[in-house]
Design goal:
By secondary structure, the chain is of the alpha/beta class. The protein has helices at about 30-40, 50-60, 70-75, 95-100, 120-125, 130-135, 155-165, 210-225; strands at about 85-90, 115, 140-145, 175-180, 185-190, 205, 230-235, 265-270. It is globular, with a radius of gyration of 18 Å.
Length: about 270
């Protein structure tokens, strides 16, 4: 997957027939998301869904991800100062798209969106935007929801170690989020269209259970010299309350991506001891 992100989206990946392209909204539009769109963005209640569909199709044109995270605006609604919030992605186009989605071009500074590659060569990362604009050891809370599961084990370890370099030196600073997990930890080959690159390299990802996830971060902590307390738990789709997006709704559809009987959502926190 990391290799694939260096180039264009695979042939056929933009088809709207893939199961993670939801033609209509179901549980994805949570009460919190609707509240942010209505109260923060000022979108009338009867226009919210049409607005989401419009932005969804623009996002699909950037890269056909199953999901795009948007935690920052919820933090603003909950009272966090914009001056303390930063977002980062590999694709610079998401900055403009986020402003379109949340209609806050006049409220969320453009320089608080940092385009960088967490898997760049070492010198490029050390002297890159994340390390130079934010600086090492400066971030109190880092959210990495639906992120690490994009990579194989070695790239997850590399990413985790670099994230720890950004984390504040203060005890209690934390990394948190959720991602796709599995009862049985291990490498998996992605299903088409993300299964390989044009030069024949197979795209592998590593799916964790709580034990393997804890081992990954302990190893990253040793490499970065950071003492950690790690908590992780799996939750099955049927354990989510009615009306809550489990992230696995497309599992019931005829065409599957990488969802099976062992698939779970992994929730986690990694705290500096």
């Amino acid at each position: 997957m990391a290799k694939m992100l260096e180039g264009l989206a695979p042939n056929g990946s933009r088809s709207v027939s893939w199961p993670w392209y939801h033609q209509t909204l179901t549980t994805e539009l949570t009460m919190d998301a609707r509240r942010v769109l209505e109260q923060y963005s000022g979108i009338p209640a009867d226009e919210v869904e049409a607005h989401i569909y419009s932005i969804r199709d623009k996002a699909w044109g950037i890269f056909p991800w199953p999901c795009v995270g948007q935690d920052v605006r919820k933090c603003i609604v909950d009272g966090v100062s914009v001056s303390q919030l930063f977002a980062s992605d590999l694709f610079a186009q998401y900055e403009d798209l986020a402003h379109d989605l949340w209609r806050d071009r006049d409220r969320f500074p453009t320089d608080h969106f940092i385009t960088d590659n967490i898997l760049a060569d070492n010198d490029d990362f050390v002297y890159g935007p994340l390390m130079t604009k934010l600086g090492p050891g400066q971030i109190d809370i880092i959210s990495i929801t639906m992120f690490l599961h994009l990579f194989d084990y070695l790239n997850q370890l590399r990413t985790a170690t670099r994230i720890l370099r950004l984390l504040s030196h203060k005890p209690g600073s934390m990394i948190l989020g959720s991602q796709a997990g599995s009862i049985r930890a291990g490498e998996q080959t992605l299903m088409p269209p993300f299964d390989g690159t044009e030069d024949g390299v197979r795209n592998m990802v590593f799916r964790h259970n709580p034990s393997s996830f804890e081992r990954l971060w302990k190893k990253a902590g040793r490499a970065a010299g950071v003492p950690l307390r790690i908590s992780a738990v799996l939750q099955a789709p049927e354990e989510f309350p009615d009306g809550v997006d489990s992230g696995f709704d497309f599992a019931t559809r005829k065409r599957r991506f990488r969802v099976g009987a062992e698939t779970r959502r992994l929730y986690f926190s990694i705290m500096r001891a």
